[in-house]
Task: inverse folding
């Protein structure tokens, strides 16, 4: 139910029949891509505001005096958020320090927020569970859950300040993190009303059921992490949400950790769509970027000054900072040795980094752009930290543009009516299933808008060509979709084997195991089964095998033979494959794709796989081209940036014999494709005549013999401007060509 299939295959191609009839018969909505739009990956930038982003308010606050106004910003800000579409307020836990001092217990400040709001979730951001008895946490937050009618949430932290553990010395680091996860388990059980045993003074266990009973059945739990990838993974493993920030980590780094988190959720049997990534950002918006910077600079620098670990990291990254001799990492820096001028320069550097790259600062337009950036990496909520030293009246005024950003970021994102690109169609129709060739998939992962759209796909089916491991990794970097590698020719009703691909570790993804009512055999030239690991030709039998070719009896007799292992016919695919020890098929290439170079039989697929693994290479094809000097291998690549041909050839030479290293590597903007979106090898251009590798000015020919030799070399090698300093073999020559020369 609700499944949407995007059909990008030409209606003249066999697979379109499967896409239409199979899907429609099973209740899919099918979106047909027209002939023109099938190759249009995107039509320029696409706003993705249809992906919801929630805003919260986050408090921290320096303790700057006693009296009734201490919590005025907390309560007034909460009222504003309640009335303007924000969904939660977080209050932290901090002990024995003016930095965060107003918030020693988030359940107390949370109850105050609950008393003045009607719609907001009230959350601990964070509750340092190892400092408390789990039963007390459950009791206190059950009160707030009743006050809010089931709108609480707890971000659980392990704690980091050793002095705080005077409250519970037994959980002092390094015991704090195990204690945190144990507390989460106990809290969840207590919240559900299950008895949990705790030790009494004499060591005996006593089971308790906490009161009052909460409204919500399950306790929403976040794990707070400062950026440790292992904590992200552990949060996914226990099925918790994540609360993090950009102090000490970049947006790109958070994006990578969200991928780790989502994979851990999937591995634990959870759907990432059911969980929340909340990112805390220091926030202040104004009419102009300059005014916002002026207001935020002093308070932000004071905030950063209070975090010694952050100062060390920014000092290490500050170009003008002279690192002490013998110091090899940021955390070994001694801040006591910094002069006031040095410290202020580092703090200004840190502020500019944070203001421009890591906060919600500037104007409404700046805020919307930041939100869109965070949507694309999988952030679900932004916790706007507002009380870090800015005057409360200015903070309240700054909430108005924040509310405008929230509104604009969640407005209906209307795609251009005439945008029928694949990226737009995926978004417009909520596509869940996509089937395409690896060449088409490569086009999608090479385009930013298409990568964003792929993130919405649930199931990818890739077939028609070999699926490189590098492409699998590229797909997994932008989508959590299942990836199924499909194999099968038209003659066996399109698909015959399939494999769920979990990683891109293989140079070429396996083609898997036979689908239902299908038999697959790997045979030698005498129709004998090949043992595990030995390559042979692939033959297919079963209900999918067709009767033959219409009015082509000779070809039918050659390709369709009686099944010596059972009933019916076997179809000879012409493909080479081998079984592995787990009974999974691995595709080796076409039997007719093997070429002979100087008397040696070469398997092009092996070269292509290694070429695709080279840094910067996004797609690779190798063919044999006839030249005046005989057949030579030529590699064709698409790349994410400039690629040095000689460096790539040198890398290939480390793993391949010299005869298998292409004589030329040609970089293309994109691979030519057939109407069915497979690589059109016949359309690959001939390499341009190469120039000699010598960079000095050419020396004049000393004799007629030199002139004659350069003419022969040019004819054999296709290299212009040959000079006396050049080397025949470096220019692409080999021993057989040397004989011809």
Result:
């Amino acid at each position: 139910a609700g499944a949407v299939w995007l059909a990008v295959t030409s209606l003249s191609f066999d697979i379109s029949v499967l896409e239409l009839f199979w899907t429609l018969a099973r209740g899919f909505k099918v979106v047909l891509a027209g002939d023109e739009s099938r190759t249009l990956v995107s039509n320029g930038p696409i706003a993705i505001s249809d992906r919801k982003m929630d805003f919260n308010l986050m408090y921290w606050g320096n303790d700057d005096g006693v009296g009734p106004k201490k919590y005025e910003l907390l309560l007034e800000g909460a009222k504003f958020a309640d009335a303007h579409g924000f969904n939660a307020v977080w209050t932290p836990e901090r002990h024995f320090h003016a930095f965060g001092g107003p918030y020693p217990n988030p359940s107390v400040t949370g109850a105050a927020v609950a008393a003045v709001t009607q719609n907001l979730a009230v959350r601990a951001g964070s509750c340092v569970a190892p400092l408390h008895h789990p039963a007390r946490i459950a009791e206190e937050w059950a009160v707030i859950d009743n006050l809010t009618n089931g709108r609480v949430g707890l971000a659980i932290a392990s704690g980091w300040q050793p002095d705080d553990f005077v409250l519970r010395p037994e959980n002092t680091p390094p015991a704090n993190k195990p204690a945190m996860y144990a507390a989460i388990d106990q809290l969840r059980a207590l919240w559900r009303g299950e008895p949990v045993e705790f030790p009494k003074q004499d060591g005996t266990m006593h089971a308790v059921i906490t009161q009052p009973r909460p409204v919500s059945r399950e306790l929403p739990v976040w794990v707070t992490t400062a950026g440790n990838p292992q904590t992200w993974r552990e949060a996914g493993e226990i099925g918790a949400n994540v609360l993090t920030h950009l102090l000490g980590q970049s947006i790109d780094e958070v994006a990578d950790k969200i991928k780790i988190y989502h994979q851990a959720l999937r591995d634990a049997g959870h759907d990432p769509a059911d969980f929340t990534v909340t990112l805390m950002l220091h926030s202040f918006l104004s009419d102009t970027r300059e005014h916002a910077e002026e207001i935020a600079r002093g308070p932000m620098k004071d905030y950063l000054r209070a975090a010694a670990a952050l100062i060390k990291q920014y000092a290490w990254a500050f170009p003008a900072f002279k690192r002490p001799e013998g110091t090899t990492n940021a955390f070994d820096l001694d801040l006591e040795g910094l002069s006031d001028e040095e410290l202020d320069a580092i703090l200004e550097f840190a502020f500019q980094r944070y203001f421009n790259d890591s906060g919600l600062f500037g104007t409404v337009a700046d805020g919307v752009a930041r939100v869109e950036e965070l949507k694309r990496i999988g952030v679900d909520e932004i916790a706007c930290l507002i009380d870090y030293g800015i005057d409360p009246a200015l903070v309240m005024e700054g909430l108005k543009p924040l509310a405008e950003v929230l509104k604009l970021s969640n407005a209906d994102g209307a795609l251009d009516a005439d945008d029928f690109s694949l990226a737009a169609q995926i978004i417009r129709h909520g596509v869940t299933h996509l089937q395409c060739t690896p060449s088409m998939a490569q086009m999608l992962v090479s385009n930013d808008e298409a990568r964003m759209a792929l993130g919405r796909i649930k199931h990818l089916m890739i077939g028609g060509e070999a699926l490189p491991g590098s492409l699998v990794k590229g797909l997994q970097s932008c989508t959590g979709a299942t990836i199924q590698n499909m194999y099968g020719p038209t003659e066996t009703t399109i698909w015959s084997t399939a494999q769920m691909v979990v990683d891109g570790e293989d140079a070429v993804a396996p083609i898997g195991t036979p689908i239902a009512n299908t038999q697959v055999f790997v045979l030698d030239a005498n129709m004998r089964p090949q043992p595990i690991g030995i390559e042979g030709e692939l033959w297919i039998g079963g209900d999918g095998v067709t009767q033959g070719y219409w009015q082509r009896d000779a070809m039918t007799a050659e390709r369709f033979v009686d099944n010596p292992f059972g009933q019916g016919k076997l179809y000879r695919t012409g493909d080479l494959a081998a079984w592995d020890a787990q009974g999974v098929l691995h595709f080796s290439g076409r039997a007719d794709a093997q070429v002979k170079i100087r008397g040696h039989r070469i398997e092009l697929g092996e070269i292509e796989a290694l070429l695709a693994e080279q840094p910067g290479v996004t797609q690779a094809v190798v063919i044999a081209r006839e030249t005046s000097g005989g057949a030579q291998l030529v590699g064709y690549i698409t790349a994410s940036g400039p690629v040095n041909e000689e460096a790539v050839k040198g890398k290939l030479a480390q793993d391949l014999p010299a005869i298998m290293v292409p004589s030329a590597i040609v970089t293309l903007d994109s691979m030519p494709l057939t109407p069915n979106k497979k690589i059109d090898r016949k359309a690959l251009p001939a390499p341009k005549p190469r120039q000699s590798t010598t960079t000095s000015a050419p020396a004049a020919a000393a004799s007629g013999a030199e002139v004659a030799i350069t003419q022969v070399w040019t004819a054999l090698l296709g290299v212009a401007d040959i000079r006396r300093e050049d080397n025949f073999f470096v220019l692409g020559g080999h021993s057989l060509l040397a004989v011809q020369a």
In short: The two ends are 69 Å apart (CA to CA).
